[in-house]
Design goal:
The protein has helices at about 1-10, 15-20, 30-45, 50-60, 65-75, 230-235, and strands at about 95-100, 105-110, 115-120, 125-130, 140-145, 150-155, 160-165, 170-175, 185-195, 195-205, 210, 220, 225, 245-250, 250-260, 265-270, 275-280. It has about 280 residues and is of the alpha+beta class. The chain has two domains: about 15-75, no CATH class; about 95-100 and about 130-280, Neuraminidase (6 Propeller). Strand 2 and strand 3 form a beta hairpin.
């Protein structure tokens, strides 16, 4: 009996990390369950490596165009297989957010453990500069414009502009319009409006999006706290002279992309309303 146990103990370490992870995945022959499982993980903000093989197996069993489209969408959210990682030597122990600067050959990564913000070489993974936890505690959003890196920090409640080359601070603010202050900035994006730019900051606790000029001057705000049902009711009951109100309930993130009509659009994940809003810039 003791010998058998010993043999089993020896066989375990030979498992790769990828195969051990796959043991917890649903059967690839059941695409419906697999799609639901991965969608839930991605919705929770967890995009695991190593899913590529699992999704590839599932493609052999899809039975409808809808399933195929969903699988392809999930595939776009999953990066390289876990079996072929690209190590970043000086990356934070627990990465939170990242921004890749392909032209500059660098990547900016923040730590979820309060370890600050790092700029690393893409090819070697080695550190170019590091801003410690005295300045940044939980950077959740970043945007790059030329040699300026804009970041929002959820714990210090600030929007900051840095030199992308050496990490030195250019300006920093926690102020917003009408005397408000940032409370829980969870994401940000750089919006191009013709010849000028704006920084949009998604504030989860304030249930709003605040806008700033590139020099940190507060410009305006979008949204009001409320559920989707309230927004719908008010759209039909308000006086015609009043503008439509957009309601957010803990908006989590935003991204600037080109919509199907070719226009620049801001997509907002309105988490507690369980929807994505498309906003004209």
């Amino acid at each position: 009996m003791g010998k058998n146990k010993k043999k089993k103990g020896k066989s375990r370490p030979s498992q790769t990390r990828a195969s051990a992870w796959e043991l917890n995945l649903p059967e690839s022959s059941d695409p419906e369950s697999l799609i639901i499982w991965w969608t839930a993980r991605v919705t929770d903000g967890f995009s695991p490596l190593g899913a590529e093989e699992n999704l590839a197996q599932c493609r052999r069993h899809v039975s409808s165009p809808e399933q195929k489209n969903t699988l392809e969408a999930l595939h776009q959210l999953i990066s390289a297989p876990l079996s072929a990682p690209h190590p970043l030597v000086d990356a934070p122990a627990v990465p939170l957010a990242a921004l890749v600067d392909e032209a500059g050959g660098r990547i900016f990564i923040s730590g979820a453990d309060g370890s600050g913000l790092s700029c690393l070489e893409i090819d070697s993974g080695r550190k170019i500069w590091h801003a410690d936890s005295g300045l940044f505690r939980r950077v959740t959003g970043m945007a790059l414009s030329g040699a300026t890196l804009f970041v929002c920090d959820r714990w210090t409640k600030r929007l900051t502009a840095l030199s992308a080359d050496d990490g030195s601070e250019i300006w920093s603010t926690g102020e917003a319009v009408y005397g408000e202050k940032l409370a829980e900035p969870s994401d940000m994006a750089l919006i191009e409006k013709g010849s000028r730019s704006e920084i949009w900051v998604c504030d989860r606790e304030k249930h709003r999006i605040f806008s700033y000029s590139p020099d940190g001057t507060p410009l305006g705000r979008i949204g009001w706290r409320g559920m989707l049902t309230e927004e719908t009711i008010k759209r039909f009951t308000k006086p015609a002279s009043e503008p439509d109100l957009i309601h957010f309930e803990f908006p989590q993130s935003l991204s600037v992309e080109t919509d199907i009509d070719g226009k620049s659009t801001v997509f907002v994940w309105d988490s507690w309303n369980r929807r994505v809003l498309c906003l004209d810039t």
